[in-house]
Amino acid sequence: MQQSQSQPPFPWEDDTKAFTKAYAESLDAQDTLAHFRGQFIIPTKHDLTRKTIVPKDEEPPSPLCTYLCGNSLGLQPKATQTYVNRFLQTWATKGVLGHFTPHEDELTPPFVDVDDMASKLMAPVVGALASEVAVMDTLTTNLHLLMASFYRPQVGGRYKIVMEGKAFPSDHFAVESQIMHHNLPPAEAMVLIEPDDLEHPILSTEKIISVIDEHAEETALILLPAIQYYTGQYFDIARITAHAHSKQIPIGWDCAHAVGNVELKLHDWDVDFAAWCNYKYMNSGPGAMGGLFVHERHGFVDVDVNENGNGGSGSMGRLSYRPRLAGWWGGDKKTRFIMDNRFLPCPGAAGYQLSNPSVLDISAVIASLQVFNAATMPALRQKSIKLTAYMEHLLLNSPSDKQTIFSVNSADSKLFTILTPSNPLERGSQLSILVRPYLLQGVYARLVASGIVVDERKPNVIRVAAVPLYNSFMDVWEFCREFLEACAEAERENQGKTG
Ligand SMILES: Cc1ncc(COP(=O)(O)O)c(C=O)c1O
């Protein structure tokens, strides 16, 4: 179970030097993953403010920005250009031969097999068998494809979908439209789990379980986020999945904010299905191809060969697999190019593919996956827990002692609170900081002016994520110092206005 372990105390908890720059530097010096930062392109402060993308003239050197926004869009790995350029060269020099012909200097296999390479590399990142993962399409599309397969409402039987009331809007729209697609009324069929406290919208596992229990007899599907996009809360996937199954309800997880962020074990947790995007912590570029997981017990394809030796949908009744929306790329590789209109799905998640993948796009995903596999999720998670706990410590315990540079006593000021659970095992990299509503504009503007990239959610939340592949403890220290100063300055300005 992901949240039953306890976390040892962090070394900075009793150390007054924790607020000094030297202390942050010492944490970086001990970081065994620090070299991965060099594998990413980190924009300079000047890059962020220049009116053009390409510099027009020779520019004086500029310091790197402090990029803490991997929860929204991850930075570009240096390998991406290499992989994308090699693909472009393959296409340019080989044309259609690139589909099937291997080459001595290829970085990815021929185009027809590139998706296999991606799923093999993706599997350890989400804790799955390679056959349970497909790198394909985009998140909302994949949610629809999966719901088309797993949401099978019965007339007079189970028809409801349980989800959270504060879900990312695209998930809400996807569920609502699936329900309407079956000619059912969303007002009745959509069960929305609402937080007890709207100001502090954390959902306890008990609350989720109680809503599931209340609707269990009528529920056909549950869809939840592994990590909530707004609060950064990491749900207890293992326990909630087991509970759903005890009520015979299939459950799917939106892993947009969890993939590449926390150590998922989708197979072991017996999750029915999951989907994610690859542009946040997965660093594959805006709108990059996403991924999906289908547990192996749902991915079977039983072919009972008939007397004439034929399988496939041409011999209906002899082929059994979970129903889905189909396209040729989900068809078994041995028969895919026979073009005989008999759909024989590939076993596993690959059988959910519809179209041949964009090799341009998947090249970027593969480049990023190579970095993840070199670093490994267990090691990344260990560093992530430390980075985020250090940030929380600096934000919440800053003394007013001037020597430390942190001139604001955050504990007294109460200019902000952290929405994200304080238990490191109930969150990933992201901290969602709720500031007093009148402070957001000023605080955010000062962070931008200081070259610190975070993400604001109006009316008053700043989401900040220190990601272990490219962020340092110094990034965290810089952010905290600037954020606390920015809060104090915005408060002084506000008092000046009102006083
Ligand atoms: C939780 C969640 N669900 C769905 C989406 C929509 O993703 P896409 O535009 O890739 O379909 C996002 C995008 O950020 C998200 O964070």
TrEMBL record:
GO terms for molecular function: kynureninase activity; pyridoxal phosphate binding. One of its GO terms (biological process) is anthranilate metabolic process. It catalyses: L-kynurenine + H2O = anthranilate + L-alanine + H(+); 3-hydroxy-L-kynurenine + H2O = 3-hydroxyanthranilate + L-alanine + H(+). It comes from the Eukaryota. It is an enzyme of class 3 (hydrolase). Its main location: cytoplasm. It is found in: Cytoplasm. Pathway: Amino-acid degradation; L-kynurenine degradation; L-alanine and anthranilate from L-kynurenine: step 1/1; Cofactor biosynthesis; NAD(+) biosynthesis; quinolinate from L-kynurenine: step 2/3. Residues 216-290 form the Aminotransferase class V domain. The modification N6-(pyridoxal phosphate)lysine is found at K280. GO terms for cellular component: cytoplasm. It holds the Pfam family Aminotran_5. Pyridoxal 5'-phosphate binds at L139, T140, F168, P169, S170, D171, D254, H257, Y279, W328, N356. Its EC number is 3.7.1.3. Its cofactor is pyridoxal 5'-phosphate. Keywords: Cytoplasm, Hydrolase, Pyridine nucleotide biosynthesis, Pyridoxal phosphate. Homodimer. HAMAP family: Kynureninase (MF_01970). Belongs to the kynureninase family. Catalyzes the cleavage of L-kynurenine (L-Kyn) and L-3-hydroxykynurenine (L-3OHKyn) into anthranilic acid (AA) and 3-hydroxyanthranilic acid (3-OHAA), respectively. This is Kynureninase. It comes from Helicocarpus griseus UAMH5409. The gene is BNA5.
